[in-house]
Design brief:
CATH topology of chain B: 60s Ribosomal Protein L30, Chain: A
Structural class of chain B: alpha+beta
Largest interface: A-B, 36 and 35 residues
Number of strands of chain B: 10
CATH architecture of chain A: 3-Layer(aba) Sandwich
CATH architecture of chain B: 2-Layer Sandwich
Radius of gyration of chain B: 15 Å
Strand order of the largest sheet of chain B: 1-3-8-9-10
Shape of chain A: globular
Number of domains of chain A: 1
Distance between the termini of chain B: 22 Å
Order of helices and strands of chain A: HEEHEEHHEEHEEEH
CATH class of chain A: Alpha Beta
Number of strands of chain A: 9
Oligomer: heterodimer
Order of helices and strands of chain B: EEEEEHEHEEEE
Helix content of chain B: 10-25%
Helix content of chain A: 40-55%
Number of domains of chain B: 1
Largest sheet of chain A: 5 strands, antiparallel
Structural class of chain A: alpha+beta
Largest sheet of chain B: 5 strands, mixed
CATH class of chain B: Alpha Beta
Strand content of chain A: 25-35%
Shape of chain B: globular
Distance between the termini of chain A: 13 Å
Radius of gyration of chain A: 16 Å
Chain lengths: 205, 161
């Protein structure tokens, strides 16, 4: 099996571009869902040691909302959306004008369900764009949601990759809306076996 | 001044007073602390997965797996001068952060805890305290001057273990 650290610059660029397209599609979907303009940062595909992943999300003890989905089909992986507490509250107020959420965050069943649906839409649009390029159908599982320390959420997602190496491939981007700050991170972590499939599908294996 | 020494994923560290060994934001990983109250030497292992068998890579990091990390920590402490029969263990972690929507759980956290219990049992190291399972992340500080652990969950004051 391929050691992630051996990926060359061309392969990383190709993966970054895939991430770019996926995130672009997700941003469009989010803009339609929220009915407002959404801009996004240039996605960043990186090979990271496990210990560095939590730092990107603001440190291991940062309070974040995590929405997690499994990528299913021939290409498998994990899709993780991390939203800071502040973004989660803003998002909920946009989605549900009557919502009374505030820091410290506590959400009811309806708010939970809204956030899950948002995760569903983002993951679905991201994966649709990817499927079209690599020509392999991809699906996502039902979303699962948790509000906790960033480190704990990330550790439980990357454990599955731990038997192959000490690094993960991660595509990260950030969404922002002009009027309100909607900072969030999208992480796509292909399972190590699936990485090979993706690379050969885009002709850089 | 006690120094706070972080122990990253798949890492292991031993030290002595006044140091504090710490791991922040533990999810499904399991943190195993071993301590000899006489010499006050102790160590932490930050374990990711239950078992190293069946892993097909050239280089296996023994600190990553319960079945290899725990004997290694025990051995390292013995080399550092602890008396094997004095050593006790405390364990923290093994949560299931994202409960599956379909209710079918195959939690790595739970498997990790089981593997840790087995490995400690095989070495004959008694477990004197634990905070494992559930659906919450934890932060851990292991205070080597007293052997006490401080475990905190988001939104709650730290508890002593």
């Amino acid at each position: 099996m391929r050691d992630l650290c051996t990926l060359n610059q061309k392969q990383l660029d190709a993966l970054r571009e895939l991430g770019n397209i996926g995130c672009g599609n997700a941003a469009t979907a989010l803009a339609q869902f929220l009915n407002r303009r959404i801009s996004m940062s240039v996605p960043n595909a990186q090979i990271l040691p496990f210990s560095k992943v939590a730092e990107l999300a603001g440190g291991p003890e940062e309070r974040v909302m995590g929405i997690y989905l499994r990528v299913l089909g021939k290409i498998k992986g994990s899709f993780l959306l991390l939203m800071p507490e502040r973004t989660t509250i803003r998002m909920l107020k946009i989605l549900i004008p009557t919502s009374t959420v505030e820091i410290p965050l506590k959400i009811n069943d309806f708010e939970r369900s809204c956030l899950c649906e948002m995760g569903n839409i983002l993951a679905g649009s991201f994966l649709n764009a990817l499927s079209a390029i690599v020509n392999v159908p991809m699906f996502n599982s039902i979303p699962s949601l948790a509000f906790d320390m960033a480190g704990a959420l990330i550790d439980s997602v990357i454990l599955g990759m731990g038997d192959v190496g000490d690094h993960v491939l991660m595509v990260e981007t950030m969404f922002t809306d002009n009027q309100e700050n909607l900072k969030m991170h999208i992480f796509l972590l292909p399972d190590p076996v699936s990485l090979e499939l993706i690379l050969s599908a885009i002709g850089v294996n | 001044m006690p120094e706070i020494l972080p122990v990253g994923m798949a890492e292991m560290r031993i030290s002595q007073p006044p140091d504090v060994l710490a791991v922040y934001g533990v999810g499904s990983c399991v943190i195993v602390a071993m301590y000899d109250p006489k010499t006050r030497i102790g160590g932490l292992a930050h374990i990711m997965l239950p078992c190293s068998s069946g892993v097909q890579t050239e280089k296996v990091n023994p600190k990553k797996f319960a079945n290899t990390a725990i004997p290694l920590l025990f051995q390292t402490l013995a080399h550092a001068g602890v008396f094997r029969s004095n050593v006790w263990a405390k364990i923290v972690g093994g949560s299931e952060m994202f409960p599956p929507a379909d209710g079918i759980s195959n939690s790595v956290g739970k498997q990790n805890v089981e593997a840790v219990l087995k490995a400690l049992d095989e070495l004959g190291v008694p477990i004197i305290a634990k905070a494992v399972g559930g659906n919450s992340g934890r932060s851990v500080e292991f205070i080597l001057s007293s052997g006490k652990m401080s475990v905190s969950i988001l939104g709650e004051p730290p508890k002593e273990l």
